[in-house]
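Continuing the batch. This is chain 6 of the set; chains 1 through 5 are on the previous pages. Same settings as before, nothing changed between runs. Recording input and output for traceability.
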Amino acid sequence: MTKRFVPYGRQIIDEADIEAVAAVMRGDWLTTGPAVAQFEEAFSDFVGAQYGVAVSNGTAALHVAALAAGFGPGDEVIVAAMTFAASANMARYVGADVVFADVRSDTLTIDPNHVASLITDRTRAIVAVDFAGVPCDLDELRSLCEQHDLLLIEDACHAPGGTYRGRPIGSIADLSIFSFHPVKHLTTAEGGMVTTDSPELAERMRQYRNHGIKTDFRQREEQGTWAYDMAALGFNYRLPDLNCALGISQLAKLPDWVEARRRIAARYNTAFADFDGLRTLTEPEDRTASWHLFPVIFEGPDSAAIRASAFENMRAAGIGVNVHYLPVYLHSYYRNLGYEPGLCPVAETAYAGLLSLPMWPGLTDEEQDRVVEMVGAAVGA
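Output for chain 6:
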């Protein structure tokens, strides 16, 4: 009997989700309707923020955050090197320069000490990435921002449902970014959200997601006018009601899914505790990781070769391992801008041995045991 392919991540959709979307399809509003505000309110309440701004995807969320913050040519934005490219691209979209910061070796989250050494009079913000779902050192980063009058932007796409020193992720930074791609903790198919306590930033982001127009259709209907003003060069980054209805339904299940991810992570950690040449990420005692990914790091002089062999063998066995991430400045776009290897040695060393294992709430113990067995074979355990 052929064993089921085990993806590194995937969505879980049930009948309640399908009915929530179907209910919108039976109604009058497929987009720009009431489900958008309902999802924004439900999600911002969940993370403990005053405002939520829903957009078409996580990259759009990063972009409208950069626009609302007013970044532009001549500005510098410090970004964690170990992340998906969009975390850095947000600065490039608006003409700002990216300064890459190295990461802590134990968590692969941005290193506040390296960040402190990179701040100049051109720095406008720090973009901290909760890598794999492990929250960053947010208080230390906040202190740096207060000292230098910077914005703290948390790319929290990996960490909804996580906590930092008792506070929910999404309630701490000036702007917190979330993605609802199908491999994330909850999905709207595609979608994103920015949470903030600033009414000014929230208003500007809503304007930028809607072509730069100050009012939406429903506001003009209430005012009895057709007239509108495009006050800025914006985009169509709206998230339709169909997607938002799915998000509302999924959000109700998020706490249970986070617990399932944490159980799977604990099981991995127990299994790998005695494996030589392999390590996992640290979860600091003052925070709760929500484990979007479960990376392992092969260590030693042959780490890259072992990782490559493990990747090939596990994929051939129907286990959808992946690699997250090549340090962003090593992509050809950034290399063409003048960035060179050696910029963030901790990130580069970790990347050579990184492998992301299957991590999603539907992963069974039997499937996880298959994964553990093959990782063990890779390191001779």
